[in-house]
Amino acid sequence: MINGLQETTALHNGVKMPWFGIGVFKVEEGPELVNALKAAIKHGYRSIDTAAIYGNEEGVGEGIKEGLKEAKISRQDLFITSKVWNADLGYELTLKAFESSLQKLGLEYLDLYLIHWPVEGKYKDAWRALETLYKQGKVKAIGVSNFQIHHLEDLMMSAEIKPMINQVEYHPRLTQKELQEYCQKHEIQLEAWSPLMQGELLDNDTLQSISAKYQKSIAQIILRWDLQNGVITIPKSTKEHRIIENASIFDFELTKEDMEKIDSLNENKRVGPDPDHFDF
User: Fold this and answer.
1) Three-state DSSP class for 122?
2) Which residues pair with 80 in a beta bridge?
3) I want to staple 242 with a disulfide (CB 3.0 to 4.6 A). Which of 97, 134, 237, 268 is the partner?
């Protein structure tokens, strides 16, 4: 059982990554972003997830700097993730994109760097660049995002180092069981983006009854379900009370029956693009 906000899982290279973190998708540069990250760090979050395409790496860097100072902790205590965008996939381009992200974030290294989408014909060269960065010690772990089984199989045919993470859309309407099974078999840790399905699940009857039973919010029930399924999760929020609430999920455990009830909500329904039919 995962008992606390700072509990970690060991990736296949031994690097420890927190089970729970905060995402900043669609949070614009500015005080709201900086304050959200300061609040998250103050309340014990240690994992922060951004991406080049979010256009907010400078604000994330600012939030990290101020958060560290206020919480009196060091950079080594945090786990920072960013991702290379589709337009920058390619060996040299990806190396350049990484340096640009690092500069914007104001950091000397990243804990995790991901290929954001599996753009056909481009992700293998990008992966070679990630392997180079990893060997140089500029990033502690490397992985992918939105990769289906066939993308992973294709990548691993030529990869020297297999991905440590696959970050995908994952929520009770899209449980990705087959993909998770494949990743487990290959020691690739699954991580959830959009765990709350952008709010679409908040009026679901099944989840409402489970929520009443445990006296927890629907968001807390879903996030707890993620962790009990062995999936790292990074809900997004900019409001301090919500940042605290999202992380208040370590004082209860869902029963096997309730886990199965939530699993049964699956409809293979996405709120984000389909990796196989994404207009890159």
Assistant:
1) coil
2) 48
3) 237
Give the H or E element holding residue 155: helix 149-158
280 pLDDT more than 70: no
Active-site residue list: 54
Cα-to-chain-centroid distance, residue 227:
12
DSSP 217: -
Q: What is the pTM of this model?
A: 0.96
C-alpha span between 81 and 139 (Å, rounded): 9
Torsional sign, CA 48, 51, 52, 55: negative
Half-sphere exposure of 56 (CA within 13 A, CB side): 23
CA 262 – CA 245 distance, rounded (Å): 20
User: What's the rounded Cα separation, in Å, for the pair 101 and 209?
Assistant: 43
- Neighbouring residues of 212: CB distance < 8 A, sequence distance ≥ 6: none
Residue 156 DSSP SS3: helix
Tokens representing residue 195 in the block: 């765990």
The three-state secondary structure class of 49 is: strand
Strand partners, 112: 81, 141
What CATH code is assigned to 8-263?
Answer: 3.20.20.100
Kindly state the DSSP code that residue 201 receives in the 8-state scheme. T
Q: What is the DSSP string of 63-93?
A: HHHHHHHHHT--GGG-EEEEEE-GGG-SHHH
Condensed to tens digits (0 to 9), the pLDDT of residues 206-251 reads: 999 999 999 999 999 999 999 999 999 999 999 999 999 999 999 9
Q: What tokens appear for 101 in the block?
A: 């992200």
168 close to 179: Cβ distance less than 8 angstroms: yes
